[in-house]
């Protein structure tokens, strides 16, 4: 199948998603959790088995007992404390700083490692841009989900983003490795090698992704409020990573190759 014939459409779709996410971030911002802002988080299990969560300014032991007593009066039964944590106001900014550092270090390490393994900076930059695409899609999605459904950015979200980095680059390496094998000792159109590589790895990639998606859907539906948005972040990242590996990373690589050839051809004709 001629996948690369429509690479402009793939890049247009990705660009539109990212722009919409940036629009959401600028206009609506994020629903920041206490992990970043500081404050208290309390979780109680109600008599019917559901979980009630309270988040806000820091509370002491007396205030905590008052919240529990009011909740028991409201539901007409005994509630069980599941979780109570206080996060100091100084911890939030430090966590944000370390998160940014972790993402930057991961992206640079991915770029350098892939460039070294494939003996070309083109592969490293293309893979890195695809992972940045996935991060922006997930972050933008959580701005939208936070505005409409109350999704929060917390420690688990950071964990999900770092996990998505590894998943996305794994699929990209599989496709890139197939392209490299096809190119060895051969001359030809970069689009043809890319089309064959995508066709040969597509079924494996989709099957692998579906096993993860089914598990994440089960966590979202049955896992409870504590890990619900963590699973949603992983789900969005899995879908985005499955898409970006063949259609973003490879499209960037092929476009870069073709531009390089045209520039060289232009220089040779002078």
Describe it for me?
- The structure is a single chain.
- With 270 residues, the protein is mainly alpha-helical.
- It has two domains: 3-33 and 90-269, Multidrug efflux transporter AcrB transmembrane fold (Up-down Bundle), CATH 1.20.1640; 39-87.
- The chain contains eight helices and three strands, in the order H-H-E-E-H-E-H-H-H-H-H.
- It has helices spanning 7-27, 34-37, 61-75, 91-117, 121-149, 155-183, 190-222, 225-269; strands at 39-45, 51-56, 80-87.
- Strands 2-1-3 form a three-stranded antiparallel beta sheet.
- A hairpin with a 5-residue loop joins strand 1 and strand 2 (51-56).
- It is elongated.
- The two termini are 36 Å apart.
- 30% of the residues are buried.
- The mean pLDDT is 88.
Q: Which CATH class of the largest domain? A: Mainly Alpha
Low-pLDDT windows of residues: none
Write the H/E string, N to C: HHEEHEHHHHH
Radius of gyration: 23 Å
Number of helices: 8
CATH topology assignment of the largest domain: Multidrug efflux transporter AcrB transmembrane fold
Characterize the biggest β-sheet: 3 strands, antiparallel
Number of strands: 3
Strand order of the largest sheet: 2-1-3
Average pLDDT, all residues: 88
How many domains is the backbone divided into?
2
- Structural class assignment: mainly alpha
Identify the CATH architecture of the largest domain: Up-down Bundle
Name the CATH superfamily assignment of the largest domain. Answer: Multidrug efflux transporter AcrB transmembrane domain
Strand content: 5-15%
Specify the overall morphology.
Answer: elongated
């Amino acid at each position: 199948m001629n996948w690369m014939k429509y690479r402009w459409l793939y890049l247009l779709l990705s660009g539109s998603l990212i722009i919409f996410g940036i629009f959401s971030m600028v206009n609506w911002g994020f629903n920041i959790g206490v992990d970043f802002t500081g404050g208290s988080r309390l979780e109680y299990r109600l008599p019917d088995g559901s979980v009630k969560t309270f988040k806000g300014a820091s509370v002491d032991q007396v205030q905590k007992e008052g919240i529990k007593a009011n909740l028991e009066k409201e539901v007409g039964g005994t509630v069980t404390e599941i979780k109570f944590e206080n996060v100091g106001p100084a911890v939030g900014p430090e966590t944000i700083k370390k998160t940014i550092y972790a993402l930057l270090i991961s992206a640079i390490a991915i770029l350098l490692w892939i460039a070294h393994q494939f003996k070309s900076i083109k592969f490293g930059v293309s893979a890195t841009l695809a992972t940045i695409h996935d991060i922006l899609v997930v972050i933008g999605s959580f701005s939208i989900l936070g505005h409409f459904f109350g999704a929060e950015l917390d420690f688990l979200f950071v964990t999900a983003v770092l996990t998505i980095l590894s998943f996305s680059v794994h699929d990209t390496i599989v496709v890139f490795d197939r392209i490299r094998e096809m190119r060895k000792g051969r001359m030809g159109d970069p689009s043809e090698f890319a089309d064959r590589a995508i066709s040969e790895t597509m079924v494996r990639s989709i099957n692998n992704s579906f096993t993860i998606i089914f598990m994440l859907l089960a966590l979202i539906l049955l896992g409870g409020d504590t890990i619900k948005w963590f699973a949603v972040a992983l789900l969005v990242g899995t879908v985005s990573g499955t898409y970006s590996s063949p259609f973003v990373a490879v499209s960037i690589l092929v476009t870069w190759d073709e531009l390089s050839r045209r520039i060289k051809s232009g220089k040779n004709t002078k």
